[in-house]
Amino acid sequence: MSDITALYLLSLSIIFAAAAGAIRFRKIDPSYHPFIYYAWLSVVTETVVYIIIRSGKGDEIAPYVYNVFHVAEFFLLSWMFHNWGLFKRRKSVFIAINVFFLFLYLSTLYMRGHDKLNYFACIANSFALIFFSISAFNTMIVNERTNIFKNPKFWICIGMIIYFTYFILVYTEKLNFLDIKRSDDLKQKIWLVQAVSNLFVNFLYALAVIWIPRKKNTITLL
Question: What is the pTM of this model?
Answer without folding.
Answer: 0.90
